[in-house]
Amino acid sequence: MFVVANNPTDGLGVFVSDDGLSFRSIVSGGFGDHETTSAVPYVVDGRLVLGVTNQRTGSQLWRQGDDPDAPFVKVLGVLAEDIDGFAPGSVVFDGATYIGSVDRDGAVLLRTEDGMAFEAVDGIGVPRSAGALRPQLVFRGALYVVAADPEGLDVVRTTDGDRFEPVVSGGFDAGQDRNVDGALVAVDERLLLVASAIDPRREPGVAPIEVAPEHGFQLWRSADGTSWDRVDGPGLGDPHSVAAAPIVAGGMAFLAVSNYEEGDAILRSADGLDWEPIFRQSSTAHSSMGFSPFVIDRHLVIFHGDVVSGLSAWRLRAPVEAEAGVPIWVWVVGAGLLTVIGLGSALLFRRRISEPMAGDRIIAPRDRTRVKTGT
């Protein structure tokens, strides 16, 4: 088990454990550079690979050695103006691992077979305005990649790794600040595309100020990846539901929907059409950062972030079966910049849930007095 500790002051660290209880440090001080502050972890060919961010020297890729305690080797260093950082998540397709990058001037899709040699994939066909590329999944023999774009997301696919074709362009022409990024999962032999809107808040937790109108996320469904049908209206009926993160487990799709106006919530569906709420935050807050859903030991676990009250975690009591390779993060475009947040919740049909769900809170937030200011 590896833990990557991002540290904006002293440089990132990496810890390893054989039992999940006792950890030892294998990287400290950002590989000797305190400006190497954060990293996105990947597993490539059975080894840990870190997509490292350094604002001075540029983004880098470091690969684990032959055993857990062996030194890491830098396998790729790029200029800061070429790649600002790396996107979470990777997909294995046709023997190669694909990872995406983040950049304000056009992101790059990278490919490797061994985690040592990386190459940029040409001819993807997304606009230069795309600020992040994230490979999503393999569906019916094709690799799907989402390109986040403040002008509207794009989705492309390939069946051979070389030739890409567009399957979604310009965020379905939803309009300004809508469908700027998305995530794909497969359920009931169909693709589900969750297209999130811009987060309208300025500095969540500081003051309840919104710099843009709220727009609900959109949910689209496809049997072949080219013809898409929208499921219900924006936010599945609630325009305050600006974004959502999907995950699939046990043949069921779950949506962690972000709604700081009415409370974050978790929705569940067997087919991507009919959704039921199973969890909702009992309180609302401008400082809410939403949910990050995971499957741990056959149970759905959701971590809820709040920049004022802290972290809380909940665990669904009924077990689900895990399915590998599903995206669990959503990227939100704000003020022209890409910010990674683990997203979460909102209830569709404006229904209230009397109990927080058939689950147990396993981490409670810090007991802080929440103060709202502004008019």
Structural description of this entry:
The chain is built from one helix and 29 strands. It is mainly β and 375 residues long. It has two domains: 81-173; 177-375, no CATH class. The strands form eight sheets. The chain has a four-stranded antiparallel sheet with strand order 4-5-6-7. The protein is globular. The model is unreliable at 324-356 and 367-375 (pLDDT under 50).
Largest sheet: 4 strands, antiparallel
Strand content: over 45%
- Major beta sheet, strand line-up: 4-5-6-7
**Low-confidence segments:** 324-356, 367-375
Number of domains: 2
Gross morphology:
globular
Tell me the number of helical segments per DSSP (H or I, 4 or more residues long). Answer: 1
Taken in chain order, the helices and strands follow as EEEHEEEEEEEEEEEEEEEEEEEEEEEEEE
Distance between the termini: 47 Å
Based on secondary structure, the structural category is mainly beta
Please report the total strand number as a whole number: 29
Average pLDDT reading:
85
Fraction of residues in helix: under 10%
Q: What is the alpha-carbon Rg in Å?
A: 20 Å
Would you kindly provide a brief summary of this structure?
This protein has 375 residues and is mainly beta. The protein has one helix at residues 29-32, and strands at 2-5, 13-17, 23-27, 36-44, 47-54, 60-63, 73-77, 85-93, 96-102, 109-112, 118-120, 132-139, 142-148, 154-158, 164-168, 181-187, 190-196, 218-222, 229-230, 243-249, 252-258, 265-269, 276-280, 288-296, 299-306, 312-316, 330-334, 337-341, 359-363.
